[in-house]
Each structure stands twice: as C-alpha cells, then as structure tokens.
Design a protein that fits this description.
The protein has 416 residues and is mainly beta. It contains three helices and 34 strands. Strands 14, 15, 16, 17, 18, 19 and 20 form a seven-stranded antiparallel beta sheet that branches.
C-alpha cells in the first residue's frame, strides 16, 4: 500500500507542476501549450481587430481552428478597448476572432464509433462550458447501453499550461439517442478503450470478503458485489491511468463461470483490496502452464530452465505474484505473473527447420522481450526447432537449441 501511495504521489507531482489557475478564470491563451482553439458557436471573422466593422465572414460551431502564429511570433494576440482577439488560420487567410466565451482551448473531432456506457450518464444539450455554461444541472439521464459517438470535444481552459491541466481536461462525447436526438455526455468510462491494457497473469491473491467486484475495471456506485473470502487466482491484470490517477485491477473468474474485476490497491480507507502477501493454510493452486521454479523469491534468472508441469500444487505462502509451493524437488517458489509470458498457452511440438542469419535475434521467452542473442551472433545456417508458438499477431515463434542454451526465435524481425 505504501508503494502505491508513493507512486501516486510521484505521478501527482509529475503532472501537477505548481499551477494555481482556476478553470473558470478568464485567461489569455498560452500559445506555448495551445495551438488549437475550439469555436463553440458562431463567431465573426475580422480583417482588422481594431475595426469591429471589418467582418468578412463567420465560423460556425462546433469546430477546431488553428492559431496563426508560430511559437516565436507574438502577433497573434491583441487587446483593444477591454476585448481580447486571436489571429487564426481560415479558408480565406489569416483572420481575427474575438476571444470571448465562445472560444476555448482544447480539441474537437468528428467521430464514428459505438461505445458501451457502464453507468447512468447525464445528458447535456451542449457541453457545459463557455457560452453554454448553465447553472441548472441536466435532468435527463441515459442508462447503461451501447451508444453511437459522433464527436469528441476535449475542453481545456485557455490559461492551461501544466501537464496536470492537460490530463484533467474533461472529455465530452456527442452521442445519438433514439428519443432525444444528439446529446452530450462527459467523461464516460469506455471499456473498449481499456481492453488492450489487459495482461495475462496467474497471480494468486487472498480475498478478505470485504472487497467489491465489478463487471469492468471501474467503480460503478451501488453495483459492486461482495467477494467470497478465500484465495483466488486471477486470469488478467490491468494497469491504466484515468486523468491523473493510476489504477490497477485483477480480473477473476467466479465459480459460476462469470468474470469480475477487483481493485488491487484501494485509494481510500473506506475501500478494501485483496491481500497480495499472506501465509496460506496449504491451499491448492493451479499452474496453468509449465512454470519455472526457484529457491527464493525474486530469483528470476533468465538462464535457469527448471520447469514444473501444469497441474495442482499445494501453496503455503504468496508474495506479490510469487507463490511458495510443494514440488517433487521440495518447497520452491514460482513467479505467477511471468508464467503466461514465459510459456504462453498454445505451444505445440514441431520439427520445422528455421533459417538463422546475421540479423537474427533470439529471446529467452516469447513475450517478455528479453533478448538472448543480439544480431550478429549467428552465421547463415539452418537449425531444427522442437516447439512452435503462434502469437495473436500471427508471428511464428520457434524453440531451438543453440551453443549457449535453448532460446526462442521469431520468424520475422520484431519492431522494437
């Protein structure tokens, strides 16, 4: 828990800086940080900001425009008679617009995708910023369901210049609804955007019974279900950032076959997370794949090739992804976080010939990225493989013997 608290503090300092701007304060745009503006509603284009009658057209909202100046040019901002103006690029050349509540920093993009809402969301006619700010909260709510997104608006107040301000900027999504047409929602959790953050793991954790389990790696108020006390073996983990906060979750399979998510390190004292370190009462755990064993925790020497076969083993201790288990060779420890990456599911026996060249790189394991032989280690030659694994990306990996031990070699150079 202390480790996570320190990490969260470090992240807060990294992204925070020392900015004390209020997001509602009137501020001149910081051109060092903001090169785009968002026009919320129709605004006039002026040839000369000093002449309010020099209107040559208008820009409708909502759309994104680019500031005309380069970083070294300070002639894009002007003030006259208490009004601010910004010079922007347009289809009719560089023009001036008044910097009022119709203008924000940030970004706006047309979109065409479906997303799943996992909780009730407030529906807005327009993003609740600038000219559209309203003191009255919206009354309409949309329940969890699939919706179609037609635009995204990243609101950033014009004085923003810190990393923290960028990360905390609200994300507005324009969605199509059957009953009410197009509406806006703000900062939804989109499970589709986090699926690629899932990493396989065989880690064992101990539930106290106070943890709450969710359908997604996200807390939905009132939707968590209490965990059953006892040990459980995760199938995946996920670490990601929302705004400035880092989250880590484990995905577990319940006895009824359904999957749930549990937060690993709660952020608040009122929350409870599973135990990562604990003595066990000779509990049964499963090695889902062949797994290397060691004498002590933390000994992850890549060259050691002592393997246990998949199966059920007795464990008496867990420690942050490690487990101490009883084996035919005595009590040993295994790294359950690394196991799926060192020996992924789907490996088959083969006797295919593999061509090695001077450009060939080999790896200790298929998914850890740890290089065994750098390019230049081999002359052109043909070797016989004894195992094969096909990655989700379609890369063929071959297990071969070399002058310095057994290694894995992909059939094409990896992008690093």
């Amino acid at each position: 828990m202390k480790k996570v608290a320190k990490y969260a503090l470090a992240m807060s300092l990294l992204y925070g800086g020392f900015s004390f701007f209020s997001t509602s304060a009137a501020a001149r745009i910081d051109l060092m940080s903001n090169r785009q503006l968002v026009v919320l509603s129709e605004t006039n284009l002026l040839d000369d900001y000093r002449n309010p009658n020099s209107i040559v057209g208008s820009i409708s909202g909502m759309q994104m425009v680019e500031v005309a100046c380069t970083l070294n040019d300070s002639n894009c901002l002007a003030n006259i008679q208490g009004k601010e103006y910004i010079r922007i690029k347009t289809w009719i050349g560089e023009k001036w617009i008044e910097d009022d509540n119709k203008i924000t920093a940030g970004g706006y993009w047309e979109e065409d995708r479906d997303i799943a809402l996992v909780e009730d969301m407030k529906l807005y006619d327009q993003p609740d910023v600038g000219v559209y700010s309203s003191a009255e909260p919206p009354k309409d709510i949309i329940a969890p369901q699939k919706v179609h997104v037609t635009a995204i608006y990243n609101y950033l107040y014009k004085g923003a210049h810190t990393g923290r301000a960028m990360l905390e900027a609200p994300m507005w999504y324009r969605i199509s609804t059957k009953q009410q047409g197009e509406k806006w929602i703000v900062d939804p959790f989109i499970p589709e955007d986090f699926q690629d953050k899932e990493r396989s793991t065989d880690r064992v954790v101990k539930m106290t019974g106070n943890e709450l389990l969710y359908d997604h790696p996200y807390v939905v108020q009132g939707k968590g279900v209490k965990a059953t006390p006892g040990i459980v073996q995760a199938v995946a983990s996920s670490i990601f950032r929302i705004k400035t906060q880092i989250y880590e979750w484990f995905k577990i399979q319940l006895q009824d076959g359904t999957y749930k998510w549990v937060k690993t390190y709660p952020l608040f004292e009122s929350e409870s997370g599973p135990l990562m370190q604990s003595d066990l009462d000779n509990e049964k755990i499963t090695l889902r794949t062949a797994t290397r064993y060691f004498d002590i925790d933390g000994d992850a020497s890549k060259s050691l090739q002592n393997w246990l076969q998949p199966g059920t083993y007795i464990a008496d201790k867990i420690n942050e992804g490690w487990a101490r288990i009883q084996t035919p060779f005595g009590w040993k420890v295994v790294n359950l976080d690394r196991a799926p990456f060192e020996r992924p599911q789907g490996i088959t026996i083969t006797e295919e010939k593999v061509q090695l060249t001077s450009e060939t790189k080999t790896y200790y394991f298929p998914l850890t990225g740890e290089v065994s032989h750098e390019a230049g280690s081999f002359k052109d030659q043909e070797v016989l493989s004894f195992e094969k694994w096909i990655s989700p990306e379609g890369i063929n990996w071959y297990h071969i013997s070399t002058y310095s031990g057994i290694v894995w070699v992909p059939d094409k150079l990896l992008q690093e």
